[in-house]
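Appendix B: complex inputs.
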Amino acid sequence: MRFATDTAVRERRDRPGPAAVYATEVRQGWDVGGNANGGYLLSLVGRAMQAATARPDPVSVTAHFLAPGRPGPADVSVEVVKAGRAFTTATATLTSGDATAGEGTRRAVQVVGAFGDLTARSASPAGVERVDGAPPDLPPVGECPILVGGEVFPPPFMNWLQLHVHPDDAWFATGRPSGEALLRGWFRFADDEPIDTVALLFAVDAFPPAIVNAGVPMAWTPTVEFTAHVRARPEPGWLRCSFRTRFITGGFLEEDGEVWDESGRLVAQSRQLALLPRP
Amino acid sequence: MRFATDTAVRERRDRPGPAAVYATEVRQGWDVGGNANGGYLLSLVGRAMQAATARPDPVSVTAHFLAPGRPGPADVSVEVVKAGRAFTTATATLTSGDATAGEGTRRAVQVVGAFGDLTARSASPAGVERVDGAPPDLPPVGECPILVGGEVFPPPFMNWLQLHVHPDDAWFATGRPSGEALLRGWFRFADDEPIDTVALLFAVDAFPPAIVNAGVPMAWTPTVEFTAHVRARPEPGWLRCSFRTRFITGGFLEEDGEVWDESGRLVAQSRQLALLPRP
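Resulting structure:
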């Protein structure tokens, strides 16, 4: 249960004001070259927003990444903007550093999100259902090369996951980028820890950038903005994931993700705007 | 210059505090059945964020729609979260109603965005460029049926635009939905008013829902969350636009937009999460 433990938050009663403040810690080992993975930071914020909104599922969450998150204490401050019938909308800020210890603090992530209860939604008559798409066609897990964590790439948190990449997209195993900015693979936690809807916010940002398969050298691609839509709670088991970049222009690129559960249902979509690494 | 006039904002000096506050007005005629169009409201917020960040272009903007915007006075309050080297990130809230007149006010739109200067970016060496996509293949404007504004649908603001729809997607002219949740068309303002990057925030939400072509009856589809990425300032002339929905599940749907300028360049992408109209 490492992910649940490493994303735990605790409400601070010593911070009066319009915002609810949660203490947390950016744990060691969730970084890429010293900077915490964006989906991991977003999961910390998601846990605090879950608590502050008293709604279990992040239906739509958008993060702007302002500064790298370094291991150590952090606060997440959450302000409810509107508590509606179906959704509660809130803004949140993750500030890293410990102000009480006299250290400098800095805003690392700014978030806005709508939280709701996806079980309640699924149970109600939803009207039209239409799916123009399918889970990625992946060979069995055992035939897909696994990413093993190292010092920088693959990052150390790979050892806490089982992230198996489609053989056609596994340039790290074959030595050959596929030529297409596409990365497909299987995802679960190493100890088969259950994947809740906050963990999906991590899953959609856990894979290496798809542009590596288009021949862009592996490097830090800073995320400007990241949005995830969660459609349903995943069934237990593996996730089938697919990430694609179609447009690299003006130094920007988008990456679109889709995550499907073992029952073949779409559980999340993601899109991020990132900066191309400068040569 | 109706769009520029109807999205003008003016800084209020009578509101001290950490946020810059701008007075504006939700003008008559930009509504669908009495509720202001989301892209129009987002453009009002965009103008205020442009002013508060002192950066001209909305690179990534996300809006959560909290309550319908009705015609009348409104305030946009903007707080700069981080002024960085390339981008300034800010949050903003549009509140409709006039507190000074003793009327009730309510938060209608909550926004987070990163603003920058796209001219400066385009001028710098950007490294890799790669485009896996193309502008929609549209017949000449004269062969594409125009949407003419009415009481509710098409909405009255169509008369201030020239929005011509691909004949295959123009169910309103042919009486036949195409069977595919796809809507392609030409866009410009009626008086050929220049389209700046804030006007792109309107363009990406000006078309009717693509799901009508999949046979979902035309109805109000409430937007939960809307994100636009602006890649470049458009060249003068027509925009080629394309909107598609792939997944209608659990009462949710996404709609993805692409906007291309006359020079054939991708200028914006959009994605929204909306609710399926309940039967």
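Chain A touches chain B through 58 residues (CB under 8 Å).
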